[in-house]
Amino acid sequence: MGVLQRLDSALDFEGIGIPTSVLASFLGWFSLYCVLCLTNSKRSYEWHCRVVTSVHAIIISTLSYIFGMYYNPWFITNPAGRNNNLEILTLVICMGYFLFDFCWCIWFQEEFFMIIHHFLTLVCITASLIMGISGTEVGAAIFGSEVSNPMLQARYFMRETGRTKTLVYEINDLAFIVTFFICRMGIGSFFLYSYLRHPTPLLIFRIGSVGLYIVSLIFMYSIARFAVRKYRNFFMRLVRAERKEGAKMTNGNAPKEVIGAQVTGVTEGQVTRVTEGRVTGVTEGRVTGVTEGQVKGVTKGQVKGVTEGRGNGHANNHEHTD
């Protein structure tokens, strides 16, 4: 805690100016994107943008948790407090990225709800920086939004590189779904409920939090549909595999040699060399080489080579040799 206090005291945004800091952050993220595009032209623009997004998500999740949730008073019981320099640093870095990504989404015509999400995030961060309040809860909302983002980007990278059939890909998919649901729908719902009930937060932050929650619901709906489709198909493949294995045992994979045992209910199969055993209920199958045993109830099949045994009830194209 002492280290964070010293770092908070060392930062001076009054001297630098918040607008200048935001511009520097934007140029930093944009420069990283340009460097990636120039040094690896074989990859698409979306690939490089997602690399920038991954770096931002890891950095901002760490900063928003440490500076916004760990270092500060509990954001649910003490909202609308004054921003400290660590919160301002987090918001400045985050705003620079969202300015870059918002422009990228507009330029490449990304989906409408992603643009709305970025716009609402920029409004909330801008309001917090201008008014100098609510940095704690804005940072907490950023943490909940960004903590699942690295897994989403990892999924894209693995799909692009042909690693969709790996165990890591499946674990990452499941981790993303669970993390998104817990952070946005679980903790996020409780946070929104507590925040709206509190008398202190300003109207603009209330509207922003509700808007971001609605966008999260839309994203969650898409993810839930994906999860249901993915795991339903997975379980259906398991069922089909079990049925196929069972069909192999029924059709053409009956026991070939049985000694001192009993074989019953063989359908469309073949049983050969039954020694001191009993074969009953063979339908459309073939039984050969029965020694000291009993064969009965063979329908549309063939029985031959019964020695010191008994054969009865054979119908339709059978042969019995003593």
UniProtKB/TrEMBL annotation:
Region (Disordered): 298-322
Membrane spanning stretches: 16-39, 51-68, 88-107, 119-143, 174-196, 203-224
Subcellular locations according to the entry: Membrane
Predominant subcellular localization, coarse grouping: membrane
A GO term from the CC aspect: membrane
Pfam families per record: TRAM_LAG1_CLN8 (PF03798)
Keyword terms of this UniProt record: Membrane, Transmembrane, Transmembrane helix
Membrane topology qualifier: Multi-pass membrane protein
Start and end residues of each TLC domain: 42-232
Name of protein: TLC domain-containing protein
Native species: Strongylocentrotus purpuratus
